[in-house]
Amino acid sequence: xxxxxxxxxxxxxxxxxxxxxxxxxxxxxxxxxxxxxxxxxxxxxxxxxxxxxxxxxxxxxxxxxxxxxxxxxxxxxxxxxxxxxxxxxxxxxxxxxxxxxxxxxxxxxxxxxxxxxxxxxxxxxxxxxxxxxxxxxxxxxxxxxxxxxxxxxx
Length: 154
Ligand SMILES: Cc1cc2nc3c(=O)[nH]c(=O)nc-3n(C[C@H](O)[C@H](O)[C@H](O)COP(=O)(O)O)c2cc1C
Hints:
Layout: E1 3-9, H1 15-28, E2 33-38, E3 53-59, H2 67-76, E4 84-92, H3 99-111, E5 115-117, E6 122-125, H4 138-153
Parallel strand pairs: 1-2, 1-3, 3-4, 4-5, 4-6
Helix pairs in contact: 1-4, 2-3
This protein binds flavin mononucleotide.
């Protein structure tokens, strides 16, 4: 059976998008798992029912996820997601490691009971407002994708 993954992200300067793409590279190394990448504004609620796993990624904006990602999580809470698997990731600048990740996880746990978080989120450091992604962070993205995909095969 084919496992279907959708990766939903927002990215002002492209760094979170690169993280999303690199996670997908890691996912695609495992057979029979297919991943697609989309921004929330291009996602219809009903199409989400086709996926087994929903990944959500956001840059850290003022200590948390973007408004668009918060709205997207709230929208997920309004549809009947049954036993879907969820994973989150963020990009951050200074000392805000994991901050947006934790807020997304909390929001999902509170508002989207049908989305079960299968692993704790990934937080990737960028060098400044516009990036770039700090050296040594890229392998973590690919390994994360790989880990998620292997977890789904069990
Ligand atoms: C409006 C705004 C607020 C931000 N606030 C924070 C913050 O509170 N903490 C932090 O670590 N990074 C903050 N950043 C930096 C972002 O994390 C950084 O721009 C982002 O990771 C880059 O990802 P992107 O290229 O996908 O937009 C902020 C960026 C913007 C644009």
